[in-house]
Structures are given as C-alpha cells and as structure tokens.
Design a protein that fits this description.
The complex is a heterodimer of chains A (111) and B (330). Chain A has 111 residues and is α+β, with helices and mostly antiparallel strands. Chain A has two domains: 53 residues, Alpha-Beta Plaits, CATH 3.30.70; 29 residues, no CATH class. Chain A is 15% helix and 11% strand. In chain A, strands 1-4 form a two-stranded antiparallel sheet. In chain A, strands 2-3 form a two-stranded antiparallel ribbon. In chain A, a hairpin with a 2-residue loop joins β2 and β3. Chain B folds into two domains: 151 residues, Rossmann fold (3-Layer(aba) Sandwich); 167 residues, no CATH class. Chain B is 57% helix and 7% strand. In chain B, strands 1-3-2-4-5 form a five-stranded mixed β-sheet, with helices on both faces. The relative contact order of chain B is 0.08. The chains are: A alpha+beta (111), B alpha/beta (330).
Chain lengths: 111, 330
C-alpha cells in the first residue's frame, strides 16, 4: 500500500529556487517526503502530499518557502465558523495561524 | 525518572485514549534525568502532555539522557508545534530557566521532528547557542537514531498512519459522539411511539425504538469506526466521500436486515429512502471530522472538501429526518 494522499492540487506550498541554498533543512523536517535536494537546490517532489504543517517554512533560514499553515481538521474549521473556543477538542483554527500564513484564514473569509 | 512505564502509566494512556480527562494529563515542565546522565549525555525535547513524555522515556530503556519538557499546556508535540506553544520562544526560555548550559557540556538539543512546525532551528541557535537536531518522527526510532550518531534513516522521517494508529484514535472520536447520541436517541425512541403503525404508544416505542436506534447507531459505526479503519481502501480522496460510501453500504445492510430477515417491521418506500439519506449523511459528517485525527490532510484541502460536503450532509440529513417523520404517518 502506498502512502495516503489527500486532495489533488489544493496546497499553498511555494518554493523560491532563487533564495534556496540547498541546505536540505526542508527535506529533513518534512514528515511527508515532499522535498528532494539535488545539485544544491531543493525541489518539490510530491506536492499533493503536503499537509501545510509549515515545518519547512519555519525552518528555512533563507525564507525560500511560503505556505499558508493550518491544521487539516474539519472540527477546527467548524469550531472557528461557530466561534467556539476550548471545546473537548483542542482544535480551533485561530490558534494555529502562524507568521507564514495569511492574516485571515478563519473559516468564512477564505471563501 | 525511570524509562520503564508502570501499570498506572498504562492505565492513564488507556483512559485518555478513551477521551477521559484528555485535556488535563500533564507533567511539570522542566529538566528531567533518565538513568544517570552525565554532562555529555544527549538532551531530548518533549511536550508536557504525559503521553508524549511517556512515549519518549519508554523508548530509552537502559540509557542515560536529559529530557527537557516544554510547557505546551498538556498538548502533544505535533499539535502544540502547530499552535506554536512547542516553539522557539518556549525552547529558548526553558533552556535558560533550567540552567541547561551549566549542566551539559555540549550545545545540542534533539527535538522530535514533528516539533519542527513550531521551532525554527536557526533562531534557537542564534538566541540560545544550542543547535537543534531533528530526531525521528517516532520516539521508538530514537535508539537507532542515537546509536548512528544522530542520523535518521529516510523512513524515520516519514509520518505513517497505519491501521493500528487509526484504530487508536477511534475511541476519542466515539467519545465525542456520546453527547449528541444522548440527545438524539431518546428523541428517536419517542418518535417511534407515534405514527400509524399498529399498536399503542408504549408498545410501538418499545418495539420500533430499538430498531430505529440501531439505524442511527449503524451510521455512527460507519463514520466513526468503519471509515477510519478502512480509510485507504474506501474510494475517493475526500473523507466525506469515503464516509458517505461507507454509509451507503451500512444503510443497505441495515435495510436488508430489517426487510429481508423479517425479524423486525419492514420499511415502506418512504422510510427506506429516509434511511438511505440519514445514514450516509451522518457517516459522511463523522468521517469528515476524522480529518483532524489523520496525519495527511491540509487545511486548504479540508476547506475545499467542506465547501461541498457540509451542505450535502446537512441537506441529506435534514431531508432524511423529515421524510422519516412523514413516513411514520404514511
């Protein structure tokens, strides 16, 4: 059985080859095997496997990676649409927004 | 601190897996010694969710190491990294407050790889002088990682989501359905007593109530247990689609047992239609919520899926419920 892959062509991951130094940090931190580094440059090998956790962007010392980070959790999306906080599920969307994400990702506005 | 888990630790794991007190299962943040660590022993980072801490220490039998527990408010490493509490700020602060630089001679922190969404290794280095080295995804691979001079094999860097892992998160999902079930099942029983079917109110309530409750429970089973367990084999990529397909199968099974087995009142065409709407809708909704438990869904993808799935689930669920009520009087 191959690895589980979610929807096609939806993720917001972007890599700037110009800024990349080929240090390989993105390939180390990615838990989904998205990146490959060869000839001193990183490349996106398997884009659809990306789950937008943001580990690569956070650990890129050269700012070569951009991704709108967030948690792929329907409950969190519902919680933020209904403006619920601290339910029995730890997930709300707003807490997950990070620097590398857009300022307004919360539920409705993104549509 | 011992690397061996006691019975009470294992009972604690079982308890929080069932969703009981899961948000308050913590250890105190700070520096812990496993075995008899020396100034040159490795320093491992962990979260103060007790299950995270337990998984780490049980992976280190017979070893000497320091564990620096960050304050993540009792949330596991990966979720806390997403929130930023397992993050650069907390690492730098905890290194300083624990006096780590006076306790160890080296300047290396081994962080769990799934902590990387919160920690910027280059910033930790700049602000604290400590190098962050990313260890394997699974604590169980730490002995191999440490023995090979902190080198991770490619397969240690990939987060997997096998059957056993999927099954382990099912009890928490089921626990989340208990409150809605406690509201819905009594209503189902009550409504079963009304209608044009033969018999008095109480007789029908007791005869048809369990049958109708079974239909709803089939939907919960489909969305909360069958869909997660069979995730890779169900067709489609969207979780709601997978759950909806599982729900159709369970709806057909339910109707088959009711109509063909002859043990319970057979359904008319209207009630058949109602169950064919209700069970897939509920199953799709519950399976959609499993995206949060899974380890490979993106926020962009979940939002795209929800844009069509939520209206369909709500539409089919409400239509099914109305048709079901009408069918009782037809």
């Amino acid at each position: 059985m191959g690895k589980l892959v979610y929807l096609k062509d939806v993720v917001t991951l972007e890599l700037s080859s110009d800024a990349c130094t080929g240090c390989g940090m993105c390939a180390i931190v990615c838990p989904r095997g998205v990146f490959e580094v060869s000839a001193r440059k990183a490349a996106i090998l398997d884009r659809d496997s990306c789950m937008e956790c943001g580990a690569c962007a956070r650990n890129c010392a050269f700012g070569a990676i951009r991704v709108k980070t967030g948690v792929g959790c329907a409950t969190a999306v519902l919680n933020s649409m209904l403006r619920r906080q601290n339910t029995s599920c730890c997930c709300t969307l707003d807490q997950y927004q990070t620097d590398s994400g857009s300022p307004s990702l919360s539920g409705k506005e993104s549509r | 601190m011992s690397s061996a888990l006691l019975l009470q630790d294992r009972l604690g794991t079982f308890r929080v897996r069932c969703g009981i007190g899961r948000m308050d299962y913590k250890v105190d943040p700070g520096l812990y010694a496993i075995g008899n660590p020396e100034p040159d022993s490795p320093v491992l980072l962990s979260a103060n969710y007790k299950m995270s801490f337990d998984r780490l220490r049980e992976s280190l039998p017979g070893r000497d190491a320091w564990i620096l527990v960050l304050d993540t408010d009792g949330i596991n490493v990966w979720c806390a990294a997403g929130k930023g509490t397992f993050g650069t700020e907390e690492v730098v602060g905890r290194v300083a407050s624990s006096g780590l630089s006076r306790i160890v001679e080296h300047r290396r922190l081994i962080a769990p790889q799934l902590g990387a969404p919160g920690i910027a290794a280059h910033e930790v280095k700049r602000r604290s002088g400590f190098n962050v080295v990313y260890g394997p995804v699974e604590a169980g691979d730490l002995p191999r990682f440490l023995d090979s001079g902190c080198r991770a094999e490619p397969d240690m860097r990939i987060k997997k989501f096998g059957v056993s892992e999927r099954l382990a998160v099912i009890p928490v999902e089921l626990a989340h359905t208990i409150a809605p079930l406690l509201a819905i099942l009594p209503v189902l029983f009550l409504l079963s007593g009304f209608g044009s079917a033969e018999g008095g109110f109480w007789e029908k309530l007791l005869r048809l109530g369990p049958v109708n409750a079974a239909g709803f429970l089939a939907a919960v089973f489909s969305g909360c247990i069958a869909a997660p367990a069979l995730l890779p084999w169900l067709p489609g990529r969207a979780f709601a689609l997978k759950g909806g397909i599982a729900g159709i199968v369970f709806a057909l099974l339910y109707l088959f047992f009711r109509n063909v087995s002859g043990a319970q009142a057979a359904t008319g065409p209207l009630e058949t239609l109602a169950w064919l709407l209700i069970i897939p809708a509920v199953s799709a909704y519950l399976a959609m919520n499993f995206t949060g438990c899974s380890t490979f869904t993106s926020l962009s993808g979940v939002k795209k899926e929800m844009r069509w799935a939520v209206p369909m689930e709500a539409g089919a669920g409400i239509a099914g419920a109305l048709i079901w009520i009408v069918s009782r009087f037809a």
